[in-house]
Amino acid sequence: MPITPQELIANLGDLPPLPQVASQVLRVSADPDANAEDLRKVISMDQALTSQILKISNSAMFGMVREVTTLTQAIMTLGFSTIKSVVIASSAKNLYHRGTVGLQERLIWEHALVSAIASRAFAKSLRFPRMEEAFIGGLLHDIGKSVLGVKFPDRYGALLRTVYNENGVCLDLELETFGFDHAMVGEALVSRWNLATSLQAAVRWHHDPMHAEDVHRELAAIVALANHLALEEKVGIGDPHHLEDATLQAMGILQLSPEALGGIKEGVKSAIEQDKTMIAEF
Ligand SMILES: [Fe+2]
Ligand SMILES: [Fe+2]
After folding, report:
1. Is the pLDDT of residue 5 over 80?
2. Could you tell me if residue 2 is inside a domain?
């Protein structure tokens, strides 16, 4: 029987906090009275984040006509919600890189970014209105793997090697080894970070979107499709065949025929191709 979230937290101990600048950015961008100047003040306290935002604003992904040279310009052109994605991406990246699972870190991070780009592209084609939320859902869906890598470097490193070398099923091995899986751990982290409940659900149910609460099911389904596509594109660790059931569930939720899905996937693949420069920027 899977353990309760309380037992999970007790087993995991303290979870890595969301960096302070990131939580301030989230607070400011959620405040209807806040303006670009408030956001600029918060972000500019973090030099690394500032230069990352400028780099991203100028990457092909956003198709800027003029070069973006100041933070204020970046905020005005990208908008609050994209800035929020970039800030969460930057915090996630630090966590993805903290796990001491060696070579696999890079693969897990690239998988996160490609899944994020794919989620946003799926959301766009499916006319799902909250595209940035889809991006963040894709980005964070496997963040539980990083937490496990940080907390149990030896055991989790060995587990990932089994997945990689022997085509093991990640979730099953995690449940056997720890009594919980990366989706549960990811949910605990996303709730610790006080991100939206829709994101908690997308992270928790990306392997099983049917189990998400009604209101969050479409987002979970989009993230599930993006996760599968990223592995089909050979970005990440794991066999895409293990995700076929998640995709079937997602197709049911989004009412997609195999033909419709096939068509949309072609568009999503070109979005990934186009946005690939962002991977280098990060
Ligand atoms: Fe996963
Ligand atoms: Fe994944």
Report:
1. no
2. no
Q: Is residue 249 predicted with pLDDT exceeding 90?
A: yes
Contact 83, 21 (CB under 8 A): no
Domain total of the chain: 2
Each residue's pLDDT tens digit, 27-45: 898 888 989 899 999 999 9
Q: Which ligand is nearest to the CA of 227?
A: 2
User: Is the alpha carbon torsion for 147, 149, 150, 153 positive or negative?
Assistant: positive
Position 268 scores a pLDDT of 96
Q: How far is the CA of 207 from the centre of ligand 1 (A)?
A: 6
Kindly state whether residue 3 falls inside one of the protein's structural domains. no
Centroid of ligand 2 to alpha carbon of 77 (angstroms)? 30
**For the domain that residue 193 is a member of, what is the CATH number?**
1.10.3210.10
- Total-model pTM: 0.89
Å from CA of 269 to ligand 2 middle:
16
- Is 228 a domain residue? yes
> Looking at the domain assignment, is residue 49 inside a domain?
yes
